[in-house]
Amino acid sequence: MTTFSIPDMSCGHCKATVEQTIHALDPAAEIEFDMTARRISVKSSAEAASVQAALVEAGYPATPV
Ligand SMILES: [Cu+2]
User: Fold this and answer.
1) How much distance in Å is there from the Cα of 20 to the middle of ligand 1?
2) Centre of ligand 1 from the C-alpha of residue 59, in Å
3) CATH number of the domain encompassing residue 34
4) Cβ-Cβ contacts under 8 Å for 39 (sequence gap 6 or more)
5) In terms of pTM, does the model score above 0.85?
6) How far is the CA of 8 from the centre of ligand 1 (A)?
7) Which of 12, 17, 44, 58 has its CB 3.0 to 4.6 Å from that of 29, i.e. a possible disulfide?
8) Which domain holds residue 48?
9) CA–centroid distance, residue 16 to ligand 1 (Å)
């Protein structure tokens, strides 16, 4: 489980984009969203660095916390 801070994730559209981006890497990934804190927790077989890179590429810079 890796927690990322994603400051630009502000609405449902952002949430959907983040979800799609991670599921494109790993369809079995489990994602918990905290929209208030703008954080996600990801349980995935994908490397945290790969998840982070994909999110950056999708326009949502993410920092592991
Ligand atoms: Cu949004």
Assistant:
1) 13
2) 11
3) 3.30.70.100
4) 3, 4, 5, 6, 33, 65
5) yes
6) 8
7) 44
8) 2-64
9) 9
**Total domain count for the chain?**
1
What residues form DSSP beta bridges with 42?
A: 2, 31
- Which helix (H) or strand (E) segment is 20 a member of? helix 12-25
36-53 pLDDT, tens digit per residue, is 999 999 999 999 999 999
Distance 11 CA to ligand 1 centre (A): 4
Percent over 90 (pLDDT), the chain: 100
**Ligand 1: centre distance to CA 48 (Å):** 23
Q: Is residue 48 helix, strand or coil?
A: helix
